[in-house]
Write a structure and sequence with these properties.
Blueprint lengths: L1 E5 L7 E5 L16 H17 L4 E8 L2 E12 L2 E2 L6 E2 L4 H14 L29 H5 L31 H15 L3 H10 L53 E2 L1 H13 L5 H7 L4 E2 L16 E4 L4 E5 L2 E10 L2 E8 L5 E7 L2 H15 L6 H11 L1
Antiparallel strand pairs: 1-2, 3-4, 3-13, 4-5, 6-7, 8-9, 9-10, 10-11, 11-12, 12-13
Length: 385
């Protein structure tokens, strides 16, 4: 029997005994962390944070559905070290919580994934396009809504179809915002209230907040730009800031590391979902373009990758990786698990985007050296150089 570490790699570690395993039973899991390796991990990861000047980081390793190691690096705010209480901006990983809320509502018959959303919600920008009648929650969850990622990318800044709904993959935050508005209109309750009732409270996720709440500011990791300046909470360097109480179902949820780890582990098991919906959630419903695996030849090369119901699905030989990524000007995050072993990894980096992507490559190489996620992050890092 060996010992795994749980908690930050600092004085006062709690050791929990689990069955001894080989260093790497197969490529479809996360390498084991024993007490000796935990020391080298802390040193190696600290060096990565210093090398790329990562402002704040929260990292958790999961083995067989249990957190076995976690740590925080950097500062929450000037003079305040990151800790278990620190709230991290998840970026687009927020979509996993939105998806699980909708799937639990569907399991309980509160809505159908295949009902037309226009009967309850219709965005004025597309009311004259008859294709709005085709939109369903399933299309929004699987990124086949036909919308671009964000309407502000359009010249007129209006929502419009760039593909026929249901016809092809097209990653879209607008699709998730549309889904949340439909859910609110149909059920007559705010989406965050529904998320709290169907996900946060059952999973004891007491730190999670989807909307901007200034009461959380003291615990949120401050985002700094490339010059080390803090533009303000929920603000961007160019000056735009979200308003108190504003909400996004597609990004910017804040949560502490432990609460998201608890959420990820429960979703591995499919808690709160029907068996049929769990199978659909974990199946490829839309397929992205192929990945160039020559960039990282020693990492696992996906057979296919795309989205199920709200989650990114990467098919491997005899296994799947299920998770999501997040990226913004100051956020680079990833959370995923191997379906067969229920080994997983959560990496939440609060850093200028280019530095965060470069740092993510090194973190993945240390913790899961043949991760299929490496292909995408290495390609993005190289484009930034």
């Amino acid at each position: 029997m060996t010992y795994k570490l749980i908690g930050a790699v600092v004085a006062g570690l709690i050791l929990i005994p689990i069955l001894a395993l080989s260093d790497r039973g197969c490529r479809n899991d996360i390498p084991v962390i024993d007490s000796e390796r935990s020391k080298s991990l802390h040193t190696s990861l600290s060096e990565v944070m210093a090398r790329y000047q990562i402002n704040t980081a929260g990292i958790a390793v999961i083995k067989h559905g249990q957190v076995v190691w976690r740590n925080h690096y950097g500062q929450q705010s000037p003079g305040v070290a990151a800790s278990a209480q620190t709230l991290y901006d998840l970026g687009s990983i927020t979509k996993t919580v939105t998806a699980e809320t909708v799937l639990r509502l569907a399991t309980q018959g509160k809505l159908s994934l295949d009902e037309p959303m226009y009967l309850h919600w219709l965005d004025p920008d597309i009311e004259d396009d008859p294709r709005h009648q085709q939109l369903t929650p399933r299309m929004a969850l699987s990124h086949t809504s036909g919308f671009m990622n964000w309407r502000f990318f359009a010249e007129d800044r209006k929502l419009a179809f760039i593909n026929d709904p249901g016809s092809t993959f097209g990653y879209s935050g607008e699709g998730f915002e549309y889904l949340a508005k439909f859910t609110e209109a149909k059920l007559g309750r705010s989406f965050e209230t529904l998320a709290r009732e169907y996900v946060f409270e059952p999973y004891a996720m007491t730190s999670a907040a989807m909307s901007m709440d200034s009461a959380n500011f003291p615990r949120i990791a401050q985002s700094l730009d490339a010059e080390g300046q803090f533009p303000g909470y929920y603000c961007r360097p160019e000056g735009w800031c979200r308003q108190e109480g504003s909400f996004s179902s597609a990004g910017s949820m804040v949560i502490n590391l432990d609460d998201y780890a608890r959420f990820l582990i429960k979703t591995m098991r499919g808690d709160g979902l029907s068996e049929d919906l769990l199978m659909q959630r974990n199946s490829l419903l839309s397929i992205q373009d192929g990945i160039d695996c020559s960039v990282v030849p020693d990492a696992q090369c996906p057979l296919k990758t795309g989205y199920g119901l709200g989650w990114n699905i990467t098919e491997l030989e005899g296994n799947k990786v299920i998770g999501h990524r997040g990226s913004d000007w100051s956020v680079v995050t990833v959370a995923y698990y191997y379906e067969a072993s229920r080994d997983g990894l959560i990496v939440l980096l609060n850093a200028p985007n280019a530095a965060g992507i470069a740092g993510m490559v090194d973190v993945l190489r240390i913790l899961d050296p043949d991760s299929p996620e490496l292909h995408g992050y290495v390609a993005r890092r190289d484009r930034n150089q």
